[in-house]
């Protein structure tokens, strides 16, 4: 999947580098990419580079030139910090160094909750009742026979379906944007 830089701040805009010093240039190795890793779109070219086990995404406004050296283009906008971090990780990987940690990583609990929300949404869209969904997600033993209407797992299941619906209706885009950092 390819994302535009304005949607996913870790997509790095690049352009041909100015001819300063040829001995310090690092190539993006665009000629080694497969069709699934380099795509043309109406607004430019998108590439996914896998370097040292890390995925890096770049965007080129113009047709890529295989032997060309490229420079990162960073706008001084609200996403500058995220793009600069992504650009630094790419630079490190291109220079055979560890990329370093990503700036934005979901906790295991958040990943689990998102997965449950999508599973709950799928089941609800297939006509499952909240009780049936809860039995699959949490186990039938956890669901009481009589007190279902007031049980915590019923409310939790409803919230998971609502979260899944919100994601489906465009809320997934918020997952692409790291939360603002506190200074």
Structural features:
183 residues, alpha+beta, 2 domains, five-stranded mixed beta sheet, 5 strands, 37% helix, RovC-like_DNA-bd
What would you say this structure looks like, in words?
By secondary structure, the chain is α+β, with helices and mostly antiparallel strands. It contains 4 helices and 5 strands; from the N terminus they run βββββαααα. It has helices spanning 80-94, 108-125, 130-138, 152-176; strands at 11-16, 38-41, 44-51, 54-60, 70-72. Strands 2-3-4-1-5 form a 5-stranded mixed β-sheet. A hairpin with a 2-residue loop joins strand 2 and strand 3. The longest helix is centred in the last third of the chain and has 25 residues, at 152-176. The model has no long low-confidence stretch (mean pLDDT 85).
Task: Produce a short descriptive summary.
InterPro entries: RovC-like_DNA-bd. This protein is α+β, with helices and mostly antiparallel strands and 183 residues long. 37% of the residues lie in helices and 15% in strands.
């Amino acid at each position: 999947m390819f994302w535009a830089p304005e949607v996913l701040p870790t997509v790095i805009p690049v352009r041909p580098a100015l001819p300063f010093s040829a001995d310090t240039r690092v190539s993006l190795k665009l000629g080694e990419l497969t069709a699934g890793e380099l795509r043309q779109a109406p607004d430019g070219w998108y590439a996914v580079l896998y370097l040292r086990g890390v995925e890096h995404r770049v965007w080129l406004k113009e047709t890529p030139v295989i032997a060309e050296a490229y420079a990162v283009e960073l706008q001084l906008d609200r996403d500058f910090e995220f793009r600069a971090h992504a650009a630094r990780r790419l630079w490190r990987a291109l220079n055979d160094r560890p990329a370093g940690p990503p700036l934005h990583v979901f906790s295991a609990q958040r990943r689990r909750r998102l997965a449950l929300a999508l599973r709950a949404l799928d089941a609800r869209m297939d006509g499952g009742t909240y009780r049936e969904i809860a039995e699959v997600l949490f186990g039938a033993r956890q669901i009481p026979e009589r007190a279902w209407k007031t049980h915590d797992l019923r409310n939790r299941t409803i919230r998971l379906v609502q979260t899944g619906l919100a994601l489906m209706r465009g809320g997934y885009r918020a997952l692409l944007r790291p939360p603002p950092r506190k200074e």
